[in-house]
UniProtKB/TrEMBL annotation:
Basic and acidic residues bias locations: 174-188
Protein name per UniProt: Stage V sporulation protein R
Region feature Disordered, mapped onto this chain: 169-212
Domain named SpoVR protein-like N-terminal: residues: 3-370
Organism per entry: Nitrococcus mobilis Nb-231
Domain SpoVR-like C-terminal intervals: 396-444
Domain of life: Bacteria
Amino acid sequence: MAEKLEDLIPKVETLANDLGLEYYPVEFELVPPSFMMEVAVYGLPVRMPHWSFGVRWIYQMVQHRMGHSRIFEVVFPGNPNRAYLVNTNSLEENILVVAHVLGHADFSHNNLTFVRSQEQVGYRIVEQAAAHARRIAEVIEEIGEQRVEQVLDVALALEPHIDTNLPLNRSKYRPLDKRTEPEPEGFRGRYQQLPGEAQPERKTRGAPEPLHIPPHPERDLLWFIATHAPEMEDWERDIFLAVRKEAYYFQPVFNCQIMNEGWASYWHSRLLREADFLSGQIYVDSMKTHSDVVRPYAGEHQVALQVNPYHLGYSLWEHLLENGGLEAAREIRREEDDFGFIRNYFTAELADEMGLFVYSAKKNGEIRVTSSNIHELHEAILQPKFNFGAPRVVVDELKSDGTLILRHEHENDGRGLDLERARHVLEYIDRIWRRPVKLYTIDERGRQINIKPSWEID
């Protein structure tokens, strides 16, 4: 009798539980390739409408038709996890995907970056995103598509500019009463409470000083604009906060991609290997798919000019498990993101075994190895991940006349600004802020320059 996917899924889940994987329930759904493409492009099954997703859809479709992209599954962490499988995949491919999804579910259930995100955003992002989409559809009916699209232009352009080191639900800045010095905290406070130590007389000052807004460089541009824009309407603020909430959800997915894909690849390999209920042919065919997923090369190329996160993550986890054991690996899975994972555990020896290096590409197509230094290789792998791949721009000051001062933190950003794109984003922000907006960066000579909207350029 032919084996069926719906009969095999519970057996794989039982084996995963026996091997110590911990995760919230997973709801599997078979969907057509067209639906899977839309989910991959929009990031969620139902999401707010915007023209930029159409551009991504065209790119993804071109890549797919050229054979450069094949989507096996999409999984959304939560409680429950939502996993979508392509209904045109073979049984062998989908049973591997099921095992892979369980690895993802274990990772997101236990990794602290994911846990923190889920606790703040909530465990049902699919339903929340659908609610955001419905709310925006209602606003379009009331306000008009053009005005709503203009606000979405701004919010989605600023999507990378959040600060997940601070809570999702933040309070406004609170002015400090500087008339009395605050009680010392930490070691200093404990030291002053030791026996025999005289308590210092607390100093008093004059009236409170005016609060500088922001009191520190503010990285969360979506939050700041939604909170402080002088003439922002409620529906505009709702859109900004909806985009910000979804960005908080996607942050761990982006920052843990190498770890997460590697962990899931290790577990799908192990689960299939120990699944004695699978026929020999299903196992062999599934492992062929595994080899395609984790190989370092693209197509028939014999040099990996771009890192395959599945291959890199899988290779690192195999090395760590072989040398440190499962419990040590689980502790790393719990505490790290890709930044710590790569810097702390990707050694020069592993890079040499995997044939990874830093290279430069000339316009004529010539490829040249520029470095095999492990620290430079770390940064080359991680550089696209900083700040969602966007330059770091902060709110530096909100002036009394409502002028918004933005500043590019070039000294710790590691990348320059694309001036044309920055000008476009500045023009977007101007629509919402409705007061003067200035953005400062430096030019190639290190001189400070003020990027201006196109209408201010002579």
